[in-house]
Amino acid sequence: MPSLHSMENIVVTGGAGFIGSNLTLTLQRRYPSARITVIDDFRSASFKNLEGFRGDVIAANLVDVDLGYYIDASEVDAFFHLASITDTTDHDQYRQTHDNVESWRSILNHFAGEKAALVYASSAATYGIGGGINHVDAPLRPANVYAFTKVQLENLAARYAADFPSQKVIGVRYFNVYGPRETHKGQPASMIYHLAQQIRAGKSPRIFKYGEQKRDFVYVDDIVEGTILAATKQIEGAFDAKKFPRRVFNLGSGEARPFNDIITILNATLKTDVKTEYFDCPFPFYQPHTEADLKETTAAIGYKPSFTLESGIADYFKSGWLVPA
C-alpha cells in the first residue's frame, strides 16, 4: 500500500453508483485522512450506496458542470472517472455518446498538464461479440453504442497522453462485475443478482439456451483493488508508460465460467434446488464468451484477482446485499 500522503485529495465520478460507491468507501477506509469528493447526477445511482461516507458530494451532470468551480485540478492526487450511462440496451446514440464522451473530454481538458493520476472505466464490451480470450491489443469491435463510447474514451485518452507525455492516465476495461450495491441498477444489474432474486421468489432462474455461454464474472472487490492500483502505481512512479504505451488494461477474474455454474453456486449458497428455465437470447449483439487476459495488467500494475466465482458469490451473500433481509 502506498504512503497515505500520496492520496490526500481524491475525486470519484459516478461515486454513488455500483462500482463507484464500493470504490469510494474503500478509499475512505484506506485513506482516512484524505479529502474525497464524489460527483454524481444520481440518474443511475442511489444515496443508500454511500451510507457512512464522510466526504463531499456534488450532485451534477459532468457534461454541464463547471469543474473549475468545484475542483482545483492542481490539488487533486487521484481522479477516478466511473460516471457513465452503462445500460447496453439503451439505444439512444446521441445521449450515450454525448454524455459519456463529452464528460471525459471535459475532464481531460481540466487536468491537462497537472499532477493528478487519472483512471477511467472502459469495458470488455469494446471487444465485441467474437468470443474467446480478450487480449488488450486485440482489434476493438463495439457492437452497441455503449461500447462505442468506451472506445472513444480510450481514443481521447491516447491523444491526451500523446500531447502530455508526463501525464498520468490509465484506462481499465471492466468485465462482468457483480457484488454489493448494485441493487438500484434494475435491469442492468448483474446476472448473478437477478438470478438470485428469481430463486428467492421461488421462481425458476431463466438463462439463455442452454447456459453454456461463458463470462468473466469478477467480484466488485477485485475491480476496486485493480482500479486503485491503476492510480497508486502511477503516483508512486511504478508504472512504466514507455513499456505499456497503450495505457489500457483488463480487469476481470481471468476465468470464463458458464451461466449454468451460477445456478449451481446460487443453489448451494441459498440452500435451494431449483431447476433452470432456458429461453432464446433476444439480443443480436450478445457476447457469447468473455475472458480477460490479465498478463499485461499484472505486469503493469500488479493486479491479481482474489475471488473465484464461488468465493465472490459467498462474500456477496454474506454482505446482505445479494438477498436483503
CATH topology of one domain: Rossmann fold
> Compute the gyration radius: what is it?
19 Å
Q: What structural category characterises the helix and strand content?
A: alpha/beta
What topology, given as strand order, has the largest sheet? 3-2-1-4-5-6-11
**CATH superfamily membership of one domain, which one?**
NAD(P)-binding Rossmann-like Domain
Topology as a string of helices (H) and strands (E): EHEEHEHEHEEHEEEHEEHEHH
Strand content: 15-25%
Top CATH class of one domain? Alpha Beta
| Percent in helix | 25-40%
What does this structure look like?
With 325 residues, the protein is of the alpha/beta class. The chain has a domain of 221 residues: Rossmann fold. The chain is 34% helix and 16% strand. The strands form four sheets. Strands 3-2-1-4-5-6-11 form a seven-stranded parallel β-sheet, with helices on both faces. A two-stranded parallel ribbon has the order 7-10. Strands 8-13 form a two-stranded parallel ribbon. Helix 1 crosses helix 6 and helix 7 packs across helix 9. The chain is globular and about 55 Å long.
Quick overview:
The radius of gyration is 19 Å and the shape is globular. The chain has helices at 18-30, 67-70, 93-111, 145-163, 191-200, 220-235, 259-270, 295-301, 309-319, and strands at residues 9-13, 35-40, 56-59, 78-81, 117-123, 168-174, 176-178, 206-208, 214-215, 217-219, 248-251, 257-258, 277-279. The protein starts with 8 loop residues before the first strand and ends in a 6-residue tail after the last helix.
Characteristic terms for this protein:
seven-stranded parallel sheet; two-stranded parallel sheet; alpha/beta; 9 helices; disordered N terminus; 325 residues; 16% strand; Rossmann fold
